[in-house]
Amino acid sequence: MLKVLIILQTFLFYPKCFSYTLNSYAAFYHKLMNNFRYFHTFIRIFIKNTKDIYMKYKTIIFALCVWVAGTLSAQSVYPGQFAGKMKLNTVAPVKVESFDLQDVRLLPSRFRDNMLRDSVWMTSIDVNRLIHSFRTNAGIWAGREGGYVTVKKYGGWESLDCELRGHTTGHLLSAYGLMYAATGSEIFKLKGDSIVTELGKVQDALGNGYLSAFPEELINRNIKGQSVWAPWYTLHKLFSGLIDQYLYADNAQALAVVTKMGDWAYDKLKPLSEETRRRMIRNEFGGINESFYNLYAVTGDERYRWLAHFFYHNDVIDPLKEQNDDLGTKHTNTFIPKVLAEARNYELTGDKDSKALSDFFWHTMIDHHTFAPGCSSQKEHYFDTKRFSHFLNGYTGETCCTYNMLKLSRHLFCWQPDARIADYYERALYNHILGQQDPQTGMVCYFLPLLSGAHKVYSTKENSFWCCVGSGFENHAKYGEGIYYRSAAGIYINLFIPSVVRWKEKGITLKQETAFPAGEATVLTVEADRPVRTTVYLRYPSWSEKVTVRVNGKKVQVKRKPGSYIALNRLWQNGDRIEAAYPMRVHLETTPDNPQKGALLYGPLVLAGERGTEGMQAPAPFSNPELYNDYYTYDYHIPAGLKTTMAIDRKHPARVLQRVGKELKFTTEQGDVLRPLYDMHHQRYVVYWDLKDK
Ligand SMILES: [Zn+2]
């Protein structure tokens, strides 16, 4: 019945569908049904909490129709992106460039599954509810009887008494732009446009360029050094979201609104003394200076560069310039975006100090502050790495930290295409980001708990809206951006994710088909109107010992060098086919301070032991909607006696695990079942085992 309804609605509400002939309709129907389970999820989420199923239903079908049959046109701020939209181009010498997001399309995979679930949730967000706090702040009439009948308020960090309210609107502006670029679906453009239009009215009503869901008084408190949560952090999301709307979704009004905000910020901050500046930037301000650098790049207006420099945090960045790992117990996600701003400073001005400190910081993070799944932080903070294993608690791995480390990695990779950066990117993407979304509901996690016997704790639809929900909207919309890179010399294949990349400058398209990581092989097929001489740089991951490569069925000599690139230079013809196989092996990673604590990995995948659901009571594994910020004190009620030990042969860790069938499932003689951490949902798990030598 549901299928019939979908088809009916499709014809009723999407004019493009009328033009389908019977044959093309059959193909369309086939595509539609292939993705039926996403429709089902979509519809289930919608039906739960809506008064107007019909209208929502229409939106769903519209979104899906456009997605299935859609066309594309949009943009992506890494070197090489947004041609024609930047007044200032990258001046730093970069070795490779990023593709625009709209030039990469995901093919069916776990990544695309996440992207579709994300799109379902994003589409379900009600714009009137989202911007209610903005309208309230500006005294704008919000509907019948002031809005309390028609507009049901969102909870969590979007509540009217939360000082971070409005941050989700910023993240969503970015996410709608990203999703529009990644899919070409007009629904995301419409959503973004409608928010920008309404925010423009709020800005006009406030009258001085300021735009926020909270009063300017919060900024005044920050300037006076009085207690306030993080107003510039929140404004950063809006700046960033509006810039992204311009860059990814061609929204010119978004640029007009954000430049007015920039002018307000300049007028507000320019008269302040150095003493006042230093006092106010002690408060978390996110990546506001990165946004000002980007606004500077888009407009060429020096005032925005002044603003970016205003937020240069001397106490934090100066030690990095001296190659000093002075992270202590600072708040991790306050720290990383400040380095992102430095990375943009290097790209736009060529400042070598900014480059050196960004490199130093990245290596310090990866070498000393990162857990096996590629995540960092405990209870959001740095910790004493000499006691690393003591911090494997239920509050490790804030998702925003990994979101930001992936961003930083992409800048560094453009400067120097080092396979090690790609290795980190892959590890954090698979083990952290991919697994942070609940495959049943599309909800996302704040932390990635590494406490043995803990479980992932998901957000709720109405009452969370944590920072990691905001960055979570973006995470699953931009998988396409990290797979390929290009240079004058060739194209880099960094990730083995089924996808198609269109390399406009060379007139070729590469299609990558793979069952990775369940299978070892990936196949790339060339589409080219005419032969093109270039180099395909295939990543040789550090985790694979003996890679084999065939071009058009013929074996290619490969130098055995994990952690490098395999360069395939030839005159590529239409239909040429590259087949690469990346054998994976089981290996053990122990904590730096304790050789008796260790995680097992298969290739880049962290494996986790299943530990069931004993002691998990509703609302677990979801956050309690009655409580605010319960993620921070969440009691996992781990059953006494939960087994955390693993007998191991250190020299031959592979001997401990037996792979079962073709799926990524492993068993041990003791009866443990291990699967990729990204697949560990709605149950307890163990990542770091108490090792017993065999
Ligand atoms: Zn977060």
From TrEMBL:
Ranges that cross the membrane: 59-78
Recorded superkingdom: Bacteria
Q: Which UniProt keywords apply?
A: Membrane, Transmembrane, Transmembrane helix
Where is each Non-reducing end beta-L-arabinofuranosidase-like GH127 middle domain found?
490-584
Q: Does the keyword Cell division apply?
A: no
Non-reducing end beta-L-arabinofuranosidase-like GH127 catalytic domain: from which residue to which, for each copy? 103-481
What InterPro entries does the database record attribute to this sequence? 6-hairpin_glycosidase_sf (IPR008928), Beta-AFase-like_GH127_cat (IPR012878), Beta-AFase-like_GH127_middle (IPR049046)
Which Pfam families does the entry link to?
Beta-AFase-like_GH127_cat (PF07944), Glyco_hydro127M (PF20736)
List the protein's name: Glycosyl hydrolase
The organism of origin for this protein = Bacteroides clarus YIT 12056
